[in-house]
């Protein structure tokens, strides 16, 4: 191996580590804070009536679990070389199960939300009726059951494996059949999910353009979408774009690893494969932490709600501080008055 190869291998190995140490922690903080604020806003009565908001709430809860399990575990494992899951079989299985479930569950809910926006943007009245809370509850329940069941293979096949003599790592089962199943199922998901998002979003926006082309006098008889619905549709569209963009590197890494799996990889090829997987995982985490900023950027109604929320929080704090200051001032005045009275009594005596 030449010196130039060693140099490139070192760079490829270090970039994901530094990203996890600094950028990963940044994502962890803003992701938790942003998801919490978005959940508080969407739980208000004026928002939670909307069907699309229900899907967003499911996404926010799933993303919060992902951030505090998968992302946090990746920060410790890749950024600080601390692998707690290697110390216990139970932790090992749970970590991989939750990671696999939450990472695949989020795009599925985005697809369901895209289907809902497609239905509500239809000019057919009967089609629009399928966009309802009951349908949302039913579809998310079915999706949760299917993906929770499908992800059970991680609980069965993931274990603490002896990768090298004396080196034990929490990883998938190394049998050829399971590796083929996991690899090809991941490749299929990496292709079908973005394709479905693109198709559904494109059709929904075509429906919206047709609605806007209709004269205003006739719109009330045709559409049921209001300004908030249009803003939520744009939010969903941006989230789909972010998810697809952030998963390109990871998808390329999966395809590259699949292509060279039957070949004897050189150290540089192995380093490139690890880089695509590790760096792709860092980029993959971005889509789970940026929903709040998408809502802030796209939706004017959401921005106003956040401003009201922050104003209420600040106002309460200011009121509390002012009350404490007033109490302190009154206490000082009482002490001054008491001292004055005592001194007066002493003089008279």
UniProtKB/TrEMBL annotation:
Spell out where the chain crosses the membrane.
22-43, 55-82, 94-115, 136-156, 181-205, 235-259, 279-298
The family database entries (InterPro entries) matched by this protein are listed as: GPCR_Rhodpsn, GPCR_Rhodpsn_7TM
Q: Which organism is it from?
A: Adineta steineri
**UniProt keyword annotation of Signal present:** no
This protein's name? G-protein coupled receptors family 1 profile domain-containing protein
Gene Ontology terms describing biological process: neuropeptide signaling pathway
Domain G-protein coupled receptors family 1 profile: start-end pairs: 34-288
The question of whether Cell membrane is a record keyword is answered with: yes
Q: Which UniProt keywords apply?
A: Cell membrane, G-protein coupled receptor, Membrane, Receptor, Transducer, Transmembrane, Transmembrane helix
């Amino acid at each position: 191996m030449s010196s130039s190869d060693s140099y490139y291998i070192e760079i490829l190995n270090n970039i994901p580590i530094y990203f996890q140490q600094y950028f990963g922690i940044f994502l962890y903080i803003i992701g938790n804070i942003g998801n919490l604020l978005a959940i508080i806003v969407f739980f208000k009565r004026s928002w939670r009536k909307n069907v699309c908001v229900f899907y967003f709430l499911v996404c926010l809860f799933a993303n919060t679990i992902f951030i505090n399990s998968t992302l946090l575990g990746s920060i410790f494992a890749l950024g600080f070389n601390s692998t707690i899951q290697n110390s216990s079989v139970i932790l090992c299985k749970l970590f991989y199960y939750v990671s696999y479930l939450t990472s695949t569950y989020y795009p599925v809910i985005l697809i369901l939300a895209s289907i809902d926006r497609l239905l509500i943007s239809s000019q057919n009245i009967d089609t629009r009726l399928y966009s309802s809370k009951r349908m949302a509850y039913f579809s998310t329940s079915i999706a949760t059951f299917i993906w929770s069941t499908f992800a059970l293979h991680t609980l069965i096949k993931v274990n603490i494996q002896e990768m090298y003599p004396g080196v034990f790592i929490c990883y998938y089962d190394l049998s050829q059949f399971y590796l083929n199943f996991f690899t090809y199922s991941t490749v299929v998901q990496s292709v079908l999910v973005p394709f479905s998002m693109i198709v559904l979003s494109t059709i929904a926006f075509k429906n919206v353009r047709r609605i806007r082309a209709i004269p205003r006098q006739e719109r009330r008889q045709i559409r049921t979408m209001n300004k908030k619905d249009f803003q939520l549709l744009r939010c969903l569209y941006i989230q789909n774009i972010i998810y697809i963009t952030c998963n390109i590197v990871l998808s390329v890494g999966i395809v590259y690893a699949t292509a060279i799996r039957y070949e004897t990889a050189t150290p540089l090829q192995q380093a490139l494969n690890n880089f695509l997987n590790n760096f792709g995982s860092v980029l993959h985490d971005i889509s789970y932490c940026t929903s709040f900023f998408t809502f802030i950027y796209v939706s004017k109604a959401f921005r106003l709600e956040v401003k009201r929320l922050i104003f209420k929080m600040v106002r309460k704090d200011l009121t509390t501080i002012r009350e404490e200051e007033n109490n302190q001032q009154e206490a000082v005045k009482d002490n001054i008055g008491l001292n004055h009275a005592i001194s007066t009594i002493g003089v008279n005596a």
